[in-house]
């Protein structure tokens, strides 16, 4: 079952999958010119991590600044990007008497005066290979960059990716990059997304609370998966986004936790144990065995979602765009309310005054049911309130004046069975923008 976005304005239009429901592996695909992101195969991300592990193994067990393992890591990532059609630049700097390197990769096209950039530090500490910290972020943005190339994506804004050196020594590489940008070039950066440790073995799901648009983009994505998030505090200001934030560039990002202990409340929310989010933080055991595949998968897909959304949101979807969830949701008999969600993205401004809400509920007695549409801000629009007597099913389209609501965000169909003896399920829920 997939949460999909369908362009249904014309016959033969294509399905665009945004994400998967919680508990299922995300399975997404993009159509050329669309704003929905493709799935980022976690197997590909893990292969990049295995390659970084091999580099560390061949170079004294680490990929730290000034060591052969770091330069080999830069060469590895650069070769992948060069082959994919990126314009790459290796930027050199000196720290503690040794040469450091940043790698910058630009995807051809897009408005050069509006740049969306994603970055991760590629160096490890000297005590280990640094596979979660920060092979995980580096591998995720590498695979996302390769997905851009595979799909032939041509966004409205210009895309840039960066891999930073000597972050572990005080954000040295990213500071050097930002400090050497002319003021006019800084002004072109409309958003910097930072990914540092996104596969922690005992993960949390943390979102930076810096730029509101970037923050909301990530929160909406995880809400669509049914995964709760918290504001990131452990590493605030300690990773490369601080270099950009300090000169006024909008920033945001994701994090799954480092040496702090996961609380019992967080265990209830996300699973895991009341131990460190990453027991191997800055240690020799930060290897490919120190990765939670589910967290890596979800966060890699979130990386792509944010890049696609933020780089292409000036494009308004064509008339008749449908955002749809076809996952079955059981409705408890005379029980608690249940919801089905769709994530709307790429729509400028507010929702329409004639928002079409398609409801497909299979139920043996629709007179038992209360059905509501819930906007992203929590506003409730009642669609059906125990009418229809003994007739079964609700399969119709309602029109809602949602013009006071921001269009983009997570919309929910809420259904509750208020009487006993009859059963059913939500078969589908869709929003059509005229």
TrEMBL record:
Where does this protein chiefly localize?
secreted
**Record-linked Gene3D superfamilies:** Galactose-binding domain-like, Zn peptidases
The cofactor named in the record is: Zn(2+)
Q: Which GO terms describe its biological process?
A: proteolysis
Q: For the P/Homo B domain, which residue ranges apply?
A: 315-434
Q: Name one GO cellular component term.
A: extracellular region
The organism sits in which domain of life? Bacteria
Give the record's keywords alphabetically.
Calcium, Disulfide bond, Hydrolase, Metal-binding, Protease, Secreted, Signal, Zinc
Q: PROSITE patterns per the record?
A: P_HOMO_B (PS51829)
Q: Where in the cell is it found?
A: Secreted
Q: Name one Pfam family in it.
A: Peptidase_M28
Residues making up the signal peptide according to the UniProt record? 1-29
For molecular function, the Gene Ontology terms on record are: aminopeptidase activity; metal ion binding; metalloexopeptidase activity; serine-type endopeptidase activity
* Quaternary structure and interacting proteins, as annotated: Monomer.
What's the family?
A: Belongs to the peptidase M28 family. M28A subfamily.
Q: Which PANTHER family match?
A: METALLOPEPTIDASE M28 FAMILY MEMBER, PEPTIDASE M28 DOMAIN-CONTAINING PROTEIN
Q: What is this protein called?
A: Alkaline serine protease AFE-CC5E
Q: Which organism is it from?
A: Streptomyces sp. CC5
